[in-house]
Write a structure and sequence with these properties.
single chain; 184 residues; mainly beta; Jelly Rolls; five-stranded antiparallel sheet
């Protein structure tokens, strides 16, 4: 067995060899930075300026994530009824847009999701999603919104209302809302 002990200025790929110390110019052979703790993921990723492979300032963007909310109670409605409300911190989502998913068991009623309404008067807010059913029995209904909205910052009130179809008595069971962050 023999060793190649020749001192070369360039490796076989044409990169300058600097004894694998810290590189000084783009294209130098490089080493990994095993001393620095990598930065945690952030809303906006960045390649980093270091010439080291796996540079310590290199940041991977966070993946789009999901906030899920649910209410399992059975609601019988004879007029527009506020069935659930809660505060959502939109800073927990990553991305510029929010896509809404809505599901429930519905019987002759319309289920609506409102943003920034008022408790007791949710329709003063912005309607962000709705689903409905004309079925005379409880049936599963689910949909994902096709028009994401701009992600607000901070905490906002999210409200669900149920309204019976044509003044009939409606029922709603097991409502679930999903909010997914999306990038432009």
């Amino acid at each position: 067995m023999s060793k190649d002990v020749a001192q070369r200025e360039f490796d076989l790929a044409g990169f300058r060899i600097t004894n694998l110390g810290n590189p000084t110019a783009a294209g130098d052979a490089t080493k990994t930075d095993n001393a620095q703790i990598p930065l945690a993921g952030r809303r906006n990723g960045a390649a980093g300026a270091s010439l080291l492979a796996a540079a310590a300032e290199h940041i991977h963007p966070l993946e789009p994530d999901l906030i899920g909310l649910s209410d399992s109670a059975l609601q019988v409605v004879t007029a527009k009824t506020e069935v659930w409300f809660g505060v959502v911190d939109f800073d927990q989502l990553v991305g510029d847009l929010v896509q809404v998913g809505l599901s429930a068991m519905l019987q002759t009623c319309l289920l609506q999701t409102w943003l920034d309404g008022e408790i007791g008067n949710p329709t003063a807010g912005t309607l962000i999603m709705n689903i409905n059913s004309a079925s005379p029995t409880l049936v599963p209904v689910a949909s994902v919104g096709s028009a994401p909205f701009a992600r607000p910052t901070g905490a906002h009130l999210l409200t669900l209302t149920v309204e019976p179809a044509d003044g009939a008595e409606g029922r709603s069971l097991g409502r679930a809302v999903s909010l997914r962050g999306l990038f432009l």
